TrEMBL record:
CDD domains: HemeO (cd19165). The keyword Membrane applies. Its main location: endoplasmic reticulum. Its EC number is 1.14.14.18. This is heme oxygenase (biliverdin-producing). It is an enzyme of class 1 (oxidoreductase). It is found in: Endoplasmic reticulum. SUPFAM superfamilies: Heme oxygenase-like (SSF48613). Keywords: Endoplasmic reticulum, Heme, Iron, Membrane, Metal-binding, Oxidoreductase, Transmembrane, Transmembrane helix. The chain crosses the membrane at residues 268-288. Residues 1-20 are annotated as: Disordered.
Length: 289
């Protein structure tokens, strides 16, 4: 006879993913996000990745909505994110957003795993739903505030639909309900172990996505629409990222880059220029005396 689990699934998941959670929080991408240093370009790439991930998760969720190994945690009205992400992507990229975004390698790997799980190992789907949705309802709420401030997004919420859960009136109570529902899922000890391992895997897939986004930004790799991903120094968020007026954003970035371009590019030339100005100031001073 199959052995029963000795611990509730919700507790087992929380305990087992503590370490990978810390790892995710400490990725360079998440650290700069938390410091309010997220760049508009980075944020847009992040939303695009999330769009592919949630489309896959929600497609598989739909496929398994009547499957007893998933049905108790099927909450489309409360949790689904893909429609919200579509709104955000349209806000940032404009009406042609579908043509502008690209599914990069790490995101594709995540998407493939979600489809595999949904089709062939549906009892593991809860692990992915847990990692994403409970994460969005927890740390995601902190990230929302940071994004709004550091990207100068409108307080009315445009561009931040992903973080908003209008179908959930009390987040804390909803998380309790979700955990309780996870604990009613039919499973033996071996299946619980596999679910816990899958949740760890899903965190690692997220981490790979963050690392890839970081790489894309720092390499200045061209995006799908051909425009270069600007390096950090040239596209810092504060004061220049105003996505609610996209033209102004581009203009602001250009203006900032133009000011930078007016300065000599090497430290040596800057020193020469500084000494020249100093010398002139001293000469004018002496002359005036
Ligand atoms: C800077 C990034 C992050 C911060 C500040 C953060 C913060 C938090 C906090 C404060 C909680 C506890 C909430 C509570 O006990 O009610 C939490 C829970 C959680 N977070 Fe994060 N988090 C971050 C990133 C992530 C990422 C990247 C993921 C997954 C991809 C994630 C998944 C989760 C999950 C699944 C939980 C629920 C744990 C449980 O109650 O079982 N978090 N997070």
């Amino acid at each position: 006879m199959a052995e029963r689990p000795t611990q509730d699934l919700s507790e087992a998941l929380k305990e087992a993913t503590k370490e990978v959670h810390e790892q995710a929080e400490n990725t360079q991408f998440m650290k700069s996000f938390q410091r309010g240093q997220v760049l508009l370009r980075e944020f847009k790439l992040y939303l695009a990745s999330l769009y592919y991930i949630y489309s896959a998760l929600e497609e598989e969720s739909e496929r398994n909505k009547d499957n007893p190994v998933y049905a108790p945690v099927y909450f489309p009205a409360e949790l689904n994110r893909s429609a919200a992400l579509e709104k955000d992507l349209e806000y940032f990229y404009g009406p042609t957003w579908r043509r502008e975004i690209q599914c990069h390698e790490a995101t594709q790997k995540y998407v493939d795993r979600l489809h595999h799980v949904g089709q062939y190992e549906p009892e593991l789907l809860v692990a992915h739903a847990y990692t994403r949705y409970l994460g969005d309802l927890s740390g995601g709420q902190i990230l929302r505030k940071i994004a709004q401030k550091s990207l100068n997004l409108p307080k009315t919420g445009e561009g931040l639909a992903f973080f908003d859960f209008p179908g959930v009136t009390n987040i804390s109570k909803f998380k309790q309900l979700y955990r309780a529902r996870m604990n009613t899922l039919p499973m033996d000890a071996a299946t619980e172990k596999r679910i816990v391992e899958e949740a760890e895997k899903s965190f690692l897939l997220d981490i790979e996505v963050f690392e890839e986004l970081q790489r894309l930004i720092s390499q200045g790799k061209p995006s799908a629409n051909g425009s270069a991903v600007l390096p950090k120094l040239e596209l810092h968020t504060r004061g220049i990222n105003r996505p609610h007026s996209p033209a102004a954003t581009v203009e602001n970035v250009r203006t900032q880059m133009w000011h930078k371009d007016m300065l000599p590019s090497t430290p040596f030339l800057r020193w020469v220029l500084a000494l020249f100005f100093l010398g002139t100031a001293v000469a004018v001073g002496l002359y005036a005396m």
